[in-house]
Here is the input.
Amino acid sequence: MKELKALVKRNTKLFFMDKGMFFTSLITPAILLVLYATFLGNVYKDSFTSVLPKTLEVSEKLIDGCVSGQLMSSILAVSCVTVAFCSNMLMVQDKANGTICDLTISPVKPSILALSYYLATLISTLIICYAATVICLGYVAATGWYLSVKDLGLIFLDVFLLVLFGTALSSIIGFFLSTQGQISAVGTIISAGYGFICGAYMPISQFSEGLQKVLSFLPGTYGTSLLRNHALGGVYKEMKHVGFPSGVIESIRDSIDCNLYFFDQKVSLSTMYMILTGTVILLIAIYVFINKVRPYKR
Here is the structure.
């Protein structure tokens, strides 16, 4: 345990001491918030108002609350995975600069070394993503706040699960990389493409039927939907309170992926949690297996 604690402390400190990795990871969610609010805010607002009956009067605050909830869930869904790849660069850097050789000749088991990388990445990513969550909540408070204490707790739980998912995924991919260029290329690809396949940039309901069925197999899709449901839970309660027809509310939920369907079968929130949790366990098991089969050579 002493070796594990020392290595986790070492890896975490090195990440925060590397100003390039740290500030890149930290400012990415803030930049996304500005870009989303600037370019996607009107798109989300038009998507929301398009499903409303013209005879129904809706307050501007309620519309802004719906839009800000979408923006927050999109940013956090992407950041929990992309930041994990930035945080996990240290594992690849140790291979690239030869530090791994010094670590493997020490009396530390390869399994302890692999676990230290995972835990350090998890800690660093959680710190940054929870900071991003606070920033996003500040934006929601400034535009239209309808969140309850329960919603806040569930949002932080969703972020935790998605960080576990992103850390496990980045650890598996990073295990097979050995140069700085490789991890930078993978990070760029993940940053550019993950937001689309998880439904953060554009609701999956707007994709073709065939693509919707393909994306329904991806666990990140359900993580985004969980954040959507909890970020907009108070908005839906307010809609019901002011007299929105239940059919209109369901149409809104369908249009922004709060309701997800697996081959026309609606997926419940409990099932989404099971899928995401099961995927995290599976990915961690894969990471343990590949480290056991191909441990770091002494």
In short: The mean pLDDT is 84. The two ends are 20 Å apart (CA to CA). The chain is about 80% helix and 0% strand. Residues 213 and 263 are 6 Å apart (CA to CA).
